Amino acid sequence: MICPFLQFSKQLQPLIFVAFILTSALSVSSSPADIEKGRRKVVHVLEDDTGAVIVQTAPGKVVTHRGGSITLPCRFHHEPENVDPARIRIKWTKVTDTLQFEDVFVALGKQQRVFGSYRGRVFLEQAGPGDASVIIQNVTLEDYGRYECEVTNDMEDDTGFVNLDLEGVVFPYYPREGRYKLNYYQAEDACKKQDAILASHSQLHKAWLEGLDWCNAGWLEDGSVQYPISHPRDECGRKDTPAGVRNYGYRHKEDERYDAFCFTSKLNGKVYFLKRFKKVNYAEAIKACIRDGSVAAKVGQLYAAWKFQLLDRCEAGWLEDGSIRYPIVNPRSRCGGSQPGVRNLGFPDKKFRLYGVYCFRENKDEAAGGTGKTKSAIESLTRRKSSNSIPMNATKVI
User: Fold this and answer.
1) Which of 115, 226, 275, 384 lies 20 to 30 A from 319 at CA?
2) In 10 A of CB 386, how many CB atoms?
């Protein structure tokens, strides 16, 4: 049986590559329940006609959140076993598009190099012989995606793939100019300005399974245009069609215009409604947050606070983009209906003094010291590990 993440040759090659979906507890604190959830479930061991052992795992992916640390697991085995480790090359790349790759990390013996935005954040786990796993610290939204681990021994090589998923929330977005005003690149930039990235199809599909219903089509990160419908109706593709994620296919990235579906994850900070005696206009709202040691919250930050902070406030407030919104976790009749979510009142005239303001304050202690703490925890964990141990993990394996 061929593992979906691996590409095994039908005939046994001198270099046998195996990828264990094993992850490590890399957050500074973890509860017993989290650790138990992270233990590896089932490992299948098969023996071929030659007597060599090939280890395969059940399909899976590693999951963390923005700001967390995660192990991308990769192990290899030599036939024969007396291969000089200094001649083994380990290379990690990110699959950015069909047949397109972004270099992440490469090691040849003791020589190592990290590329681009991964510099200072990616390290070999070094849990023992045959371990090609890497640790990514301070995970960003852009780290989401599919990674390839390639192990090369002279002329022989093999590869395996690992998917890095993020816990987060998908939200639709359109600018002050109105609906269907964004080409692909403008949509990408709009999400980035709201502390988010363009969502993937799998992220949008998951959001639909959780109840997202939106009747306007939006760009996704792969260049397709889609929209999720949980309650079919005539104005959204006919009432008699089944619920699902409607797909317009891949569209022209420069000429065609739609809305955007953005994705964001956990915050390194806190969103809060600034209590004031008087309502403020947009300019006054921006200044009020600054005087309070914060900044006006972005749309993605408000969604993240609703999702992870469980922020629930039945008061409309300005956001950084000039829109008026408020988050509802516990629906009630006077707060916009029967469903939880972030209510959107649109983009009013910025001179109106009818609203409050939502501010965002960054957690500066974590921002300044988080990387050092995480690295210390990783080094401590690595020293305790043996090459055949099953690591514990505060993140999920699905």
Assistant:
1) 226
2) 7
**Residue 89: how many other CB atoms lie within 10 Å:** 17
Structural domains present in the chain: 52-166 (2.60.40.10), 168-264 (3.10.100.10), 267-362 (3.10.100.10)
- What is the chain's Cα-based Rg? 24
pTM for this predicted structure: 0.79
The pLDDT tens digits of the residues spanning 145-201 come to: 999 999 888 777 788 889 999 999 999 999 999 999 999 999 999 999 999 999 999
Cα dist. 281→172, 285, 302, 324 in Å?
Answer: 25, 6, 19, 11
Q: How far apart are CA 267 and CA 196, in angstroms?
A: 11
Per DSSP, 71 falls in state: E
End-to-end CA distance of the chain: 19
Tokens for 4?
């979906």
- pLDDT per position as a tens digit, 61-108: 899 999 999 999 998 877 666 667 788 899 999 998 777 899 999 999
Asked if residue 3 lies in contact with residue 370, where contact means CB atoms within 8 angstroms, the answer is no
CA distance 160 to 151: 9
